[in-house]
Amino acid sequence: MTAAAPARFWNKPVSKARDPINREGLRPKFWERVPLKNMEPREWEALCDGCGKCCLNKLEDEDTNEVAFTRVACRLLDDESCRCAQYDIRKQFVPECVVLTPQNISKIAYWMPETCAYRLLYEGKALHDWHPLISGNSETVHEAGQSVRGWTVPEFEIPEEEWENYILEEGI
Ligand code: SF4
Ligand code: SF4
Hints:
Shape: globular
Distance between the termini: 18 Å
Number of domains: 1
Bound molecules: iron/sulfur cluster
Structural class: alpha+beta
Strand content: 5-15%
């Protein structure tokens, strides 16, 4: 989208809970040896690091497909937990929210955050040390400054035509 084009969202199953993802009992280091399309559903969900970056509004140049993230967060994002506040009924409020799957990742990866575990693995890269699957602690994504905790602005405060004023100059 250009600055004037409609925003798009996507995300994964999360809830209000601080870390709703159960990463217990998964195959050892599955993310290093199991292709994305062959992962079990729990493994797929466990890839999410809980950063919340995918719930930021984005602007895309319709000519170049270049994507810019903004500090303007989806209306349902809780920027303390970095989770969707109404995941189960989010489509009622945000119908454009997209669920990432092994089937659609090839079309979506290019506009996901650079640190997103799904994008990293799709591009053949390794997870970062702060990823909960590596650290064993869901807080490390926040401690490493890799989440959106505490620095977003809610979209209901910012008209869409002003989102370009909130573009993040550094990649995320
Ligand atoms: S950007 Fe990727 S890793 Fe971060 S919350 Fe979204 S799906 Fe999870
Ligand atoms: S509806 Fe929820 S999951 Fe979807 S973009 Fe908004 S905060 Fe994220």
